[in-house]
Design a protein that fits this description.
Layout (H helix, E strand, L loop, with lengths): L14 E18 L5 E19 L4 E6 L13 H13 L5 E6 L10 H16 L6 H11 L3 H6 L3 E4 L4 E4 L7 E6 L6 H7 L18 H8 L7 H7 L2 H10 L6 E4 L6 E5 L2 H8 L8 E6 L8
Parallel strand pairs: 3-4
Antiparallel strand pairs: 1-2, 2-4, 2-5, 5-6, 7-9, 7-10, 8-9
Length: 301
């Protein structure tokens, strides 16, 4: 049967979707597969800041990147957003049409899932815009083909992540925590960080099944964990150490840690308001700083 056209989307108004920053509250490397891929254990949450993707009717599929970090993607001939759009169109049996605009608010190659979150937002957005219904397990299959962090970003809700990123389970209950994010203006290559990692593997973290009611208790649990990629990332990008020191010096910071493979680091605070207030005191040339909360009502695919 021939693929139906998504030209009908011309009757659908423009739409947009937030691609929130992904935060690895902890990240353990638990092993390595025979094919070289590392096995992970991570509690993943999402912040109230992110890139924003919008789409409007068009006669072909195009992507324009705007925003303060657009230049970081200028060299990409085939952005993950376009790859996600084409993969969804093939799965749904439609022609990929639409004028996509990516407002790039998150630093590139920064450990907070920017590209993965953008790809995941593309899948959620175009399912609505093209008016197609694709089962969640099939969307997750597309996501796995796009990158290890795309599945958890697609679900867009706190989760425990295992395997190479494809094994997802519900996260324990998270409190209404505040978080400050700082990127020192350095892009870090994820493959380079994994190659630089040495030492033994870590066990999976053990958290209370019913989660945490207060950020202080969450921070206490997280102190028994770590980010196994932080030491090699700090060797490759020494400014990560200065970033963590700046976070630790902020009044009210309960825990400072690097997210993902870096170089973005986060500090946990008792409330979103406390985080916003603390972030205002961080002024450093070339640094990206944001303070606020973790998402509480994320959208499902």
């Amino acid at each position: 049967m021939p693929a139906r056209s998504s030209a009908d989307s011309k009757s659908v108004s423009s739409a947009s979707e937030l691609a929130p920053a992904k935060i690895n509250l902890h990240l353990h490397v638990t092993g390595r597969r025979a094919d070289g891929y590392h096995l992970l254990d991570s509690l993943v949450a999402f912040a109230e800041v992110g890139d924003r993707l919008s789409v409007s009717p068009a006669d072909d599929l195009t992507l324009t990147v705007t925003g303060p970090f657009a230049a970081g993607l200028a060299a990409e001939a085939d952005n993950l957003v376009l790859r996600a759009a084409r993969a969804l169109a093939a799965e749904a049996g439609v022609t990929a049409l639409g004028k996509l605009v990516l407002d790039k608010q998150l630093p590139v190659a920064s450990g907070i899932g920017g590209g993965s979150a953008d790809a995941a937002a593309t899948l959620r957005l175009l399912c609505r815009f093209w008016q197609v219904s694709v089962a969640e397990h099939r969307l997750l299959g597309i996501a796995r083909g796009l990158g290890a962090d795309v599945p958890v970003c697609l679900l867009n809700r706190p989760a425990m992540m295992a395997g190479i990123g494809e094994v997802l389970s519900p996260a324990p209950n998270l409190p209404d925590a505040g978080i400050v994010l700082i990127n020192p203006g350095v892009a870090v290559s994820t493959p380079s960080v994994f190659r630089a990692r040495t030492g033994a593997f870590s066990p999976a973290a053990q958290f209370p099944a019913d989660g945490w009611q207060e950020t202080e208790s969450l921070a206490a649990s997280l102190r028994s964990t770590c980010n196994d990629l932080e030491p090699p990332a700090r060797e490759l990008a020494p400014s990560i150490g200065a970033t963590l020191a700046a976070l630790e010096a902020l009044p009210g910071c309960l825990l400072a840690r690097m997210s993902g493979s870096g170089a973005t680091c986060f500090g946990l605070f008792a409330s979103p308001d406390a985080a916003r207030q603390a972030s205002g005191s961080v002024v450093r040339d070339g640094w990206w700083v944001w303070g606020g909360g973790l998402t509480q009502n994320p959208a499902a695919p």
